[in-house]
Structure formats: C-alpha cells, structure tokens
From TrEMBL:
It comes from the Bacteria. This is Activator of Hsp90 ATPase homologue 1/2-like C-terminal domain-containing protein. Residues 13-136 form the Activator of Hsp90 ATPase homologue 1/2-like C-terminal domain. Belongs to the AHA1 family. It holds the Pfam family AHSA1. InterPro entries: ASHA1/2-like_C, START-like_dom_sf. It comes from Hymenobacter crusticola.
Length: 142
C-alpha cells in the first residue's frame, strides 16, 4: 500500500505571501529548486529545468490549481517508471498560513536508494521547514 507523505507547516506570513512564493518563478527557484528555468501556474504547464547532467531529470506538470488555495504538480523522472503527485494546500489562520503538503505515489518509483521514501521525507523537511521559512522572511522585490 502506498501511504501518502503529509507534512504540515505553519508560517508567520499572510496567505497571499505564501501563495506568491508557491506560484512565482523566481520565488520557486529560491526555495524549491534552483534548477528551475520556467514555471507558470497554469494547469498543464510543464516545468522547465536546467539539465545539469544528473541521471534523475525531473518531469513535472501542473495538475491542479485553485487560486490562493491549492497547487499540485506531477513528479516523475525521465527514463524511470513511477509517477507521484505533490499537492500544496494553504489555509489562512489570522496573519499566519498553514501549508499542508501531500506527496502521493512514492511507492510507484523503482526500489532504488535514490527513490527511497525517507529521502523524500527528509527533502520536504528541508524544503518546507527551512528553505521556504527563510524565503518568507525576506522582503519581496516584486
């Protein structure tokens, strides 16, 4: 059975600021993936990444979008079986924002250390618990 990975994080930032960090290309590059070259918050849009020669090239596509509340994208690797989906859901709590991340389909990837569930879990802890938190403390230049 494939148990989804769920992580909740409360940010000291208003919902609009967190939504901007999730949907603006330069913001995403800063906290999510520096290899990101092009992103648009449009269902069906395929993320563009720099090819740095890694054997694990990402193939992501926006799968769901509810303005100000929900962004989801597929998470696959070129040349490897398996397909997962990442969903970011936002809930305003006064001047704070609760982000609920759900990553489904992790068991569909090959039985290989690179695709181990713990790697994803540790990665999300770093990405959401540190990277995004620090990004939200910076003044917006937009």
């Amino acid at each position: 059975m494939d148990t989804p990975f769920v992580l909740e994080q409360l940010y000291e930032a208003p919902l609009a600021q967190v939504w901007h960090a999730l949907t603006e290309q330069d913001q995403l590059r800063a906290w999510y993936f520096p290899q990101l070259q092009e992103f648009k918050p449009v269902v069906g849009f395929e993320f563009k990444f720099t090819d740095e020669g890694s054997p694990y090239q990402k193939e992501w596509r926006v799968t769901q979008l509810v303005a100000g509340r929900k962004l989801a994208h597929s998470w696959m690797y070129k040349g490897y079986p398996g397909s997962s989906e990442v969903t970011f859901e936002l809930v305003a709590e006064g001047n704070k924002t609760r982000l609920v991340l759900t990553h489904t389909g992790l068991a569909s990837f090959p039985n290989d250390p690179h695709f181990a569930r713990r790697r994803f879990e540790n990665g999300w802890q770093q990405i959401l618990g540190s990277n995004l938190k620090e990004q939200l403390k910076l003044p917006s230049l937009d």
